[in-house]
Design a protein that fits this description.
Helices cover about 20% and strands about 40% of the residues. By secondary structure, it is α+β, with helices and mostly antiparallel strands. It is found in: Membrane.
């Protein structure tokens, strides 16, 4: 009894499921028939390009109307339609459920949503195609967020921040940052996009991106470049870019101890070293407690003003008249000072033709190897002589012969 009830419930459930599946199939088929397929869904192309637009339905259609932005006429299309110059019918025909149009030369005013209306079994169905006519954006602009001083300079170690603005492009432009001609390996923000509708309905887009880092001495004189990339860029022309030249002030940069060698004793010699600073540094030398400022002379020592070499490099010179051996034992301290600070440099001089090495020189290594070889040879010769009883070792190793010993023993026995 209970089993029969369960079977009835299962049969009823199966019937309901079958009806539901049939309903889903009918609805799906109806939706498929009611849908207008378009090709392409979105078209992005440059002005003047050719583009095919197609609307398709699964069954024959009675009429086809297409509306294109910027065109005053509504196109009532059929395979024998040929009324508007620059537009050609596209598709297999109304009986095949297809109609469309080929735009031979797309214009900027055609940007927008193309709409097709199809007559199907007494009703009208619609489909849309997004037609994006690309428009080259304006020249990129580098805008400073961090402001320089009144002389347009930044100071080393300060945080620097700027933004690149590329206005009124369609679609939105991409941005690349460079320092001189190399990619700027700095912190770059997310690309921000702002839409700006126009009176004619042609929406344009502005791209904005930030860059920031702690500015350094080596950034002085470099070009910060914001470069835009867009599909409208000509193949034979570089992309558009904006630039800003960085000016950085910094105290004299530190250097390791400097060694000047190859100087001739009893000659007038020049002790030269190169430093980097911006602005120009003022120089003074300290020699055994005696301070000599640039442009001054003290005894045999003369300090010259720094000579600019370009790119913030300066040549600093100390002249010593009649170099003595004692001069080569002194430590020379040079101090460079500008508006941002002072830096001390240590200089040693030598009359040696080559700078001293941190380790053993080649000649010393060869001498050590030769000495070790000679020592080993001597030890081997001594061991050989000792083993063979030659040279002075012979007298110490001779013993009385065995025969003589035996004879003496026999004589002793006879006496008894």
């Amino acid at each position: 009894m209970q089993g029969g009830i369960i079977r009835k419930h299962l049969d009823l459930l199966q019937t309901k499921l079958s009806a539901l599946l049939l309903f889903i199939v009918i609805i799906t088929d109806s939706l498929a028939r009611a849908q207008v397929n378009v090709e392409p869904n979105t078209a992005v192309l440059n002005e003047g390009a050719q583009q095919d637009l197609l609307c398709r339905y699964g069954r024959p259609i009675t009429y086809c109307r297409i509306e294109i932005p910027g065109e005053t006429k509504v196109f009532n299309l059929s395979p024998d339609w040929d009324k508007t110059p620059g537009f050609i019918y596209n598709g297999k025909g109304l009986q095949a459920g297809e109609c469309g149009v080929r735009i031979e030369h797309v214009k900027a005013i055609n940007n927008g949503q193309v709409k097709c209306n199809l007559g199907v079994e007494g009703e009208e169905l619609s489909g849309t195609i997004d037609l994006v006519v690309a428009l080259r954006p304006k020249q990129p602009l580098v805008e400073l967020i961090t402001k320089p001083d009144r002389d347009r300079y930044f100071h080393e170690g300060n945080k620097f921040q700027a933004r690149c603005i590329v206005r009124d492009g369609r679609p939105v432009a991409n941005i690349t940052w460079l320092l001189d001609n190399e990619p700027a390996a700095k912190r770059v923000g997310q690309l921000e996009v702002l839409a700006s509708p126009r009176e004619n309905g042609l929406e344009l887009f502005t791209a904005i991106q930030d860059i920031q880092w702690d500015i350094a001495a080596e950034d002085n004189g470099r070009r910060l470049v914001c470069r835009s990339h867009h599909q409208t860029d000509p193949d034979n022309a570089p992309p558009q870019e904006g630039a800003y030249e960085l000016l950085v002030r910094y105290s004299p940069l530190r250097m390791p101890e400097t060694l000047v060698y190859g100087l001739y004793l009893e000659h007038t010699v020049k002790v030269n070293m190169t430093i980097r600073a911006n602005p120009t540094p003022v120089i003074e030398w300290a020699i055994d407690g005696n301070v000599i400022r640039q442009g001054e002379q003290s005894g045999r020592f003369s300090a010259f003003e720094p000579e600019y070499l370009g790119h913030d490099f300066y040549n600093v010179t100390l002249v010593i008249a009649g170099l003595t051996l004692e001069d080569t034992t002194k430590i020379y301290t040079m101090r460079a000072t500008n508006a941002l600070g002072s830096t001390d440099y240590t200089v040693r001089i030598s009359s040696s033709a080559t700078p001293p090495s941190a380790g053993l020189e080649i000649g010393a290594i060869v001498g050590i190897v030769v000495a070790l070889a000679v020592l080993v040879l001597i030890v081997l010769l001594v061991l050989f002589a000792r083993a063979t009883g030659r040279w002075c070792f012979a007298g110490k190793t001779v013993k009385m012969s065995t025969n003589e010993t035996k004879t003496n023993n026999s004589s002793m026995q006879n006496l008894y």
